Amino acid sequence: MSELLNQALAEGSISVRAIASNWKQAIELAGDALVTSQRTTTQYTVAMVKAFEDLGPYMVIAPGIALAHAKPSEAVLGTGLSLITLTEPVVFGSEANDPVRLVIGLAAVDHDSHIDLMAALSDLLMDVMKVNMLLQAENVEQVRDLLR
Amino acid sequence: MKIIAVCGMGIGTSVLLKMNAEKVLDILGVSAEVQAADISRAKVDGPSADIILTTPELVYQLEKMPGKIVAIEHVFDLVEIREKLSAALS
Q1: By CA distance, what is B59's nearest residue in A?
Q2: Looking at the DSSP assignment, which residues form a beta bridge with residue A66?
Q3: Measured between alpha carbons, how far is A60 from A68 in angstroms, rounded to an integer?
Q4: Is the pLDDT of residue B12 over 80?
Q5: In the annotation, is A111 catalytic?
């Protein structure tokens, strides 16, 4: 399971103790990390921000956790994830789950091929203790250790 | 029993909702087909679903469907999913 997560989180896709002053900056951080790790083009970041503007804060899927994503498109170079922990929680406008401290960026090449990855991600994010440890991680290595 | 899990893009939240709904249905001993869909797909496949699973922010886009709408706030909370699904199934 966790091997899938480590593969999906390519080099450059993790950023800890990042600073964002609003939801847009937070989503852009997740997008930038997908670009750095060569899973998407910058167009995907634009699409994620637009998706949030159009559809609202439904991407905040659990207390403190946002899953930033857009539709599969040409902007997706490969299926992958990014992971951003925020120093200061950011308000996304989610009634149930604000404020956000963990942003996961998701890019998928189609609707089906990332299902196993989503199962692994679900197992990780369901584990409240592990999520808390992720949030306290001081560097990328500590995050990687938690994913192993 | 047909259930459709709906989110805006059809790759993130709906997939998580589908997986966790399947876990809950298994616990409840209910056999159902669960499909993940984005909003536009849901407009095609949604009307034949008995239950529409989604998040609170998207309910307004799905209200005209004949099936029961179940809005999940926390997609990893199996207790919430179980309570709300059980209520919709009864």
Answers
A1: A58
A2: A60, A103
A3: 8
A4: yes
A5: no
